[in-house]
Structures are given as C-alpha cells and as structure tokens.
Write a structure and sequence with these properties.
Helix content: 10-25%
Strand content: 15-25%
Shape: globular
Strand order of the largest sheet: 1-2-4-3
Largest sheet: 4 strands, mixed
Radius of gyration: 12 Å
Number of helices: 1
Number of strands: 4
C-alpha cells in the first residue's frame, strides 16, 4: 500500500467491537461505526486507528 492510501471501515457492530477490530487489524486508519447510537466528540484511538461514532437517527453529522 502506498503512503497516500488510507483504509477506512464502515461498521455497524458497536464501539467495543470496533476497538477489537482495530487491535486485530492495526493497518486500519479509521473506523466509522454505529449500532448503539453512541456519539464520540473526539475520535477514540486504538494503536494508530481512529474510531468515530456519529450518534443515531440522523441527529448528528460526523466530521473528521
């Protein structure tokens, strides 16, 4: 993979499973997740992976 490439994951499994995924696959740069309608005001960082949750029901817009 080149230096200009990113690995982005869209998930629907909840933040705890997103953290596990980040630990299992450290090459992931960003995980944009959902399922439990959690809202993160700042990315959660696991290794080099940034995890974001944008709430639920279309009430919030995530921005990175």
């Amino acid at each position: 993979m080149g230096q200009d490439e990113l690995i982005l994951v869209l998930s629907h499994q909840g933040v705890e499973k997103d953290k596990l995924l980040a630990r299992e696959i450290p090459q992931i740069d960003f995980i944009f997740g959902g399922h439990y309608q959690e809202l993160t005001s700042k990315p959660i960082k696991v290794g080099n992976t940034h995890i974001l949750q944008a709430g639920g029901n279309g009430n919030w817009q995530g921005e990175l």
